[in-house]
Amino acid sequence: MEPLLRAEHVTICYHGDPVVHDVSFELHEGEILGIVGESGSGKSTIIKAVMGLLGDDGMVTRGDIYYKNQNVIDMPGKELRRLLGPEMGMVFQDCKSALCPIRTVGAQIYESMSAHRKITRAESNQLAAEIMKKIGLTDTKRVLDSYPFELSGGMNQRVGICMAMMQKPSLLLADEPTSALDVTVQKQVVEELKMMRKEYQTAMILVTHNIGVVSALADHILVLQNGNVMEYGTTEQVIHHPHNKYTQKLMDSVLHIRRE
Predict the structure, then answer these.
(1) What letter would DSSP give residue 84?
(2) Where would you tag: which of 29, 116, 122, 234 has the fewest CB atoms within 10 A of its CB?
(3) Is the pLDDT of residue 182 over 80?
């Protein structure tokens, strides 16, 4: 079966300096890839490249990224924007900061939906409410009528997941989706992402520092250090039988508390 997404020998530069070196991976429908590594290893840069969000200073200088056999690197901006939302969704690290503080959640969801399809505000609210209920936001009217600053961090993160899933994309890119949340809410978000995969067969790339989160969700793991691939394999192999010394150190650094 053809992969949904594949990266082939990708090198990414900022201001001409390489920050990601010769990275390759593939992702099939319904699979989850976890990308792990220390801060500055290039994790977020990779998913920004997939979405065309590197900005004016960033560029893929070598290699290709194919989504459904279409090379997104060579794709004109207007054509790529048609994919963002209906085909590829994004959950940002801090969804509250990614939302406009002076517009209600409902207004922002409606704006993102109407950019890609003809839809009324009532239809947008109804679709949003259906997804919100699935991810634990039961008071949907209050959430839709609220401004981001009126919601907790966990609620804003769920709003971000809702917005990303509104058009049922084939691919969801999640950048540290649990980093700003307490442990209890982290577990809830993990369960919600699992549910999204089961419900919609959504493939995901999950960027995280949290080895516990990636071990609970991912089918495969890509380990980065300073933009270089240290290890790439199944979750079982990378976590329990790592070949690379850096990966071994990374796994050994996970805090284990033993009760005496």
Answers:
(1) B
(2) 122
(3) no
Position 255 scores a pLDDT of 47
Instruction: Give the phi and the psi of residue 115 in degrees, each rounded to 5.
Output: -70, -20
3-state helix, strand, coil split of the chain in percent (to 5) is 40, 25, 35
Beta strands at 58-67 and 32-36: parallel, antiparallel or unpaired: unpaired
37-52: pLDDT as tens digits: 888 899 999 999 999 9
Chain centroid to CA 167: 15
Half-sphere exposure of 257 (CA within 13 A, CB side): 1
Which string of DSSP letters, residue by residue, matches 189-238?
HHHHHHHHHHHH--EEEEE-S-HHHHHHH-SEEEEEETTEEEEEEEHHHH
Q: How many CA atoms lie within 13 A of 108 on its CB side?
A: 22
β-pairing, 70-71 vs 58-67, is antiparallel
List the one residue out of 234, 174, 187, 207 whose CA is nearest residue 41. 207
